[in-house]
C-alpha cells in the first residue's frame, strides 16, 4: 500500500499522463458510436421528453397553491392531481424505451469493440504474445472494453441529459423570476472550486485502479491455469502465491475504498454548496412574498427548480473529469488497436497452390530484438514481491518511444552480433520431398529457423522462398494450409478429441479423421475411452499423457495433409512404448513430404537427405552423416557426445 508521501508522488507523476481529449481521440470514439446514430437520436428524444415532462411538476404545484386552493376550484384540483399522477407514468414508459435503446447501444458498442480488438490481436505476430502477459490482454478485452462502453452510454448520456435538463430548467426559472435566477447562478462558481482538485484526484485513482485490476487479473491467469497451478504445487509455493494474491486483491480493495471516500467528500461539498443556494433563494424569495412582489406558489416552484438546477450542475461540474476517466478505457483499447501488425500481406498476394515443397533460405538473418515501435502492450505500474512482506514498486518495461527506450536500443545496438542476431546470413536449399535434419547445441537457432518458414516471424534481412515465391508475397492462409507443424510442447484446447482433430480441417469426414488417428497410432487408444472421440481432454490436454497428446497432434497434422512438415521430434520425456509409437507415426507422416526436423534421434539423422548444423545462429556445416563425420567439426563432436551415446543407450536427447 502507498504511504501518504508515496501516493502524492504518484499523483504528481500521473498528472503528466492525463488523457488528452483531442479531436482525434473523440473522432475515434464517435466512430464506434456512428453505427448507432439513429438509435442515439431516438435516445436523445427520450431524454428531451423526460426532461420536459419532469419540468412540468413545479408548475403544477405553483398552480395548485396560487389558483386551485385559494379559489377552492375542485375541478382544477382534480386536473392537477391527475396530471401529477400522469407525469411519473409517462416518464416511466419513456424510461423503459430509453433503457432499451441505451442497453442496445451499450451492448452493441461492447460487441464491436471486443470483435475489433480480438480480430486485431489475432493478427498480431508471435513476438507480440511473447512480450505481453495474457492477463493484460484479458483486462483490455473485459475491463477496458466495458469502461469504454460506459463512456458512450452512461457518461455521454448523463452529460446530454443534464445539459438538456439545465437548459429547460433555466428557461422556466428566467420566465418565472429573473432576479432569483441570477442569484441562483451566483452560487455556480462555488461548485467549481472543489471539483478542480478532487475531480483530478479521482481520475488518477481511476487509472491506478485499472492498473491494479490488470495486475490482479494477470496473477490469477498465471497461477490458475493448469501449467501455473502445477508449477506452484511442485515448488510448494501455495502460501506465497496466496500472500501475493492477497496483496494484489488488498490493493484493489484499498483503492476502491479510497475512491469511494474521496467521491463522497466531493459530493458532500457540492451538497453543502447547493444547500447554501437553496437557503439564499428561500430567504430572498420569502422577503419578496412578504413584500407582495412574489406569490407563494412561485417560490415553492422555484425551490423545486433549484433541485433540478443544482443536480445537473453538480453532475456537469464533474463531467469533464468523468469523461476523462472514461477516456482512459478508450485509450487503453486504442493502444492495443494501434499496435502495428508486423506480419502483413502485400496488396495482391500470391496464393500457394500445388506446392512441390522446394524451400530456399537466402542469406537470412533474424533478431528477436525489435528496434522500431512498440512490441507488446504497455505494462502497468506494478508491485513486485521479493521474498518478504515489503512491497516494492516497479515499473513495467517501457514500450513507447522515449528517452528510456532509445537508451535501451542504443545498448542493444552495442551488443556483439552473436547476441543481437538469432540467425546470421543463413542460406540453404531443400529439394521437394527431402528430409532435412537440424542439429546443433541448445540455443543455436534451430527453432528460429522453423518459426521463419511458416512466417511466425519475418527475417530481419534475407528471404525465405517456397517453390520460388518469397513467402512475404503469398497469402497467409495458403502458407498456413501448406505447412504443418508438430512442436515438442503440444497444445490441445479444452474440448473433445474430435474437436481438437477437426481444428486442422473442419470439413474432414469421420473416415478421414479415423484414418489420421490410425496413422498416428492413437486410434486404438481413443476407441478404448468411454466417450471415444467425444472425450474431453481437459485444460491444455492434461488429462492425457505426453505421448498421447503428441500422437493427437501428429494425427491433427496428418488430417491437415500439408505438403511441408516442420517437426520437433523430441521424445526424451516419454516412455519407450510411446516413443516407438510416435517415431513410427512420424515416419508415416514424413513419407512423400518435404520435412524440416529438429532432430534428436540418430535414426532420423541417418535417414536425412541433408543435415544442417547450426551454431550461434550460423550454418556451420551441411551434408550427410558420413560426410560430416569425416570433417571432424561440430557435428562430429555432437555425434560423439550426444547422438552416438543416445543410440547406444536406446534413449533420445
List the helices and strands and how they pair.
Layout: H1 4-15, H2 23-33, H3 37-54, H4 56-68, H5 74-122, H6 126-131, H7 134-176, H8 178-186, H9 188-224, H10 226-234, H11 238-290, H12 296-317, H13 319-337, E1 359-366, E2 382-385, E3 391-394, H14 403-413, H15 417-420, E4 423-430, E5 435-439, H16 446-452, E6 461-466, E7 469-470, H17 476-482, E8 483-486, H18 497-502, H19 510-519, H20 523-528, H21 546-560, E9 564-568, H22 576-590, E10 594-598, H23 602-607, E11 610-615, E12 618-623, H24 625-631, H25 634-648
Parallel strand pairs: 5-10, 5-11, 8-9, 9-10
Antiparallel strand pairs: 1-4, 1-6, 2-3, 6-7, 11-12
Helix pairs in contact: 3-5, 3-7, 4-5, 4-12, 5-7, 7-8, 7-9, 7-12, 7-13, 9-10, 9-11, 9-12, 9-13, 11-12, 19-21, 21-22
Brief characterization of the structure:
With about 650 residues, this protein is an alpha/beta fold.
End-to-end gap: 48 Å
As a percent range, the share of helical residues equals 55-70%
Compute the number of structural domains.
2
CATH topology of the largest domain: ABC transporter transmembrane region fold
CATH H-level superfamily of the largest domain: ABC transporter type 1, transmembrane domain
Outline: elongated
Instruction: Please give the order of strands in the largest beta sheet.
Output: 8-9-10-5-11-12
From the coordinates shown, what is the CATH architecture of the largest domain?
Up-down Bundle
Q: What quaternary form is this?
A: single chain
Q: What is the class of the largest domain in the CATH system? A: Mainly Alpha
Strand content: 5-15%
Count of separate DSSP helical elements = 25
The averaged pLDDT comes out at 78
Structural class: alpha/beta
Radius of gyration: 35 Å
Amino acid at each position: 500500500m502507498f504511504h501518504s508521501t508515496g501516493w502524492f508522488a504518484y499523483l504528481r507523476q500521473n498528472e503528466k499522463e492525463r488523457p488528452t481529449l483531442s479531436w482525434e481521440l473523440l473522432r475515434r470514439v464517435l466512430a464506434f458510436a456512428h453505427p448507432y446514430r439513429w438509435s442515439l437520436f431516438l435516445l436523445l428524444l427520450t431524454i428531451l421528453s423526460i426532461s420536459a415532462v419532469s419540468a412540468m411538476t413545479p408548475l403544477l404545484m405553483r398552480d395548485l397553491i396560487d389558483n386551485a386552493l385559494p379559489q377552492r376550484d375542485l375541478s382544477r384540483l382534480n386536473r392537477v392531481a391527475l396530471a401529477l399522477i400522469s407525469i411519473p407514468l409517462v416518464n416511466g414508459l419513456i424510461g423503459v424505451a430509453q433503457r432499451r435503446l441505451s442497453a442496445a447501444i451499450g451492448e452493441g458498442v461492447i460487441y464491436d469493440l471486443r470483435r475489433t480488438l480480438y480480430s486485431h490481436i489475432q493478427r498480431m505476430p508471435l513476438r507480440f504474445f511473447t512480450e505481453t502477459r495474457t492477463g493484460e490482454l484479458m483486462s483490455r478485452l473485459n475491463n477496458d472494453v466495458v469502461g469504454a462502453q460506459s463512456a458512450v452510454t452512461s457518461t455521454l448520456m448523463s452529460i446530454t441529459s443534464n445539459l438538456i435538463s439545465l437548459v429547460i430548467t433555466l428557461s422556466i426559472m428566467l420566465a418565472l423570476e429573473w432576479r432569483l435566477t441570477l442569484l441562483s447562478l451566483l452560487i455556480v462558481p462555488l461548485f467549481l472550486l472543489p471539483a478542480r482538485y478532487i475531480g483530478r484526484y479521482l481520475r488518477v485513482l481511476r487509472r491506478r485502479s485499472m492498473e491494479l485490476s490488470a495486475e490482479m487479473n494477470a496473477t490469477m491467469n498465471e497461477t490458475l491455469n493448469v501449467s501455473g497451478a502445477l508449477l506452484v504445487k511442485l515448488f510448494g509455493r501455495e502460501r506465497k502465491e496466496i500472500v501475493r494474491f492477497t496483496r494484489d486483491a488488498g490493493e484493489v480493495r484499498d483503492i476502491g475504498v479510497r475512491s469511494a471516500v474521496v467521491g463522497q467528500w466531493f459530493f458532500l461539498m457540492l451538497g453543502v454548496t447547493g444547500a447554501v443556494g437553496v437557503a439564499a433563494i428561500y430567504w430572498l424569495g420569502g422577503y419578496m412574498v412578504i413584500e407582495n412582489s412574489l406569490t407563494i406558489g412561485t417560490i415553492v416552484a422555484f425551490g423545486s427548480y433549484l433541485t433540478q438546477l443544482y443536480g445537473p450542475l453538480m453532475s456537469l461540474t464533474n463531467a469533464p473529469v468523468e469523461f476523462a476517466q472514461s477516456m482512459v478505457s478508450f485509450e487503453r483499447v486504442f493502444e492495443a488497436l494501434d499496435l502495428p501488425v508486423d506480419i502483413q500481406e502485400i496488396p495482391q498476394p500470391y496464393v500457394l497452390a500445388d506446392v512441390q515443397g522446394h524451400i530456399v533460405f537466402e542469406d537470412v538473418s533474424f533478431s528477436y530484438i525489435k528496434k522500431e515501435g512498440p512490441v507488446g502492450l504497455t505494462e502497468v505500474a506494478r508491485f513486485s514481491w521479493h521474498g518478504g512482506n515489503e512491497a516494492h514498486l516497479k515499473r513495467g518495461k517501457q514500450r513507447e518511444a522515449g528517452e528510456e527506450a532509445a537508451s535501451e536500443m542504443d545498448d542493444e545496438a552495442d551488443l556483439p552480433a552473436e547476441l543481437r542476431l538469432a540467425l546470421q546470413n543463413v542460406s540453404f536449399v531443400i529439394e521437394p520431398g527431402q528430409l532435412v535434419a537440424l542439429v546443433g547445441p541448445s540455443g543455436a537457432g534451430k527453432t528460429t529457423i522453423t518459426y521463419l518458414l511458416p512466417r511466425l516471424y519475418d527475417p530481419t534481412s534475407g528471404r525465405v522462398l517456397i517453390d520460388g515465391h518469397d513467402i512475404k508475397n503469398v497469402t497467409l492462409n495458403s502458407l498456413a494450409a501448406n505447412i504443418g507443424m508438430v512442436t515438442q510442447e503440444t497444445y490441445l484446447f479444452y474440448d473433445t478429441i474430435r474437436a481438437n482433430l477437426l481444428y486442422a480441417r473442419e470439413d474432414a469426414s469421420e473416415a478421414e479423421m479415423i484414418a489420421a488417428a490410425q496413422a498416428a497410432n492413437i486410434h486404438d487408444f481413443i476407441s478404448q475411452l468411454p466417450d471415444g472421440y467425444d472425450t474431453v481432454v481437459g485444460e491444455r490436454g492434461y488429462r492425457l499423457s505426453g505421448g498421447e497428446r503428441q500422437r493427437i497432434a501428429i494425427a491433427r497434422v496428418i488430417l491437415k495433409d500439408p505438403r511441408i512438415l516442420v517437426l520437433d521430434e523430441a521424445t526424451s520425456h516419454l516412455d519407450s512404448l510411446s516413443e516407438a509409437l510416435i517415431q513410427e507415426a512420424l515416419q508415416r507422416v514424413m513419407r512423400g513430404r518435404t520435412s524440416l526436423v529438429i532432430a534428436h534421434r540418430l535414426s532420423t539423422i541417418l535417414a536425412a537427405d541433408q543435415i544442417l548444423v547450426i551454431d550461434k545462429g550460423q550454418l556451420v556445416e551441411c551434408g550427410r552423416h558420413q560426410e560430416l563425420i569425416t570433417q571432424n567439426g561440430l557435428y562430429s563432436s555432437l555425434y560423439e557426445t550426444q547422438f552416438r551415446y543416445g543410440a547406444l543407450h536406446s534413449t533420445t536427447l
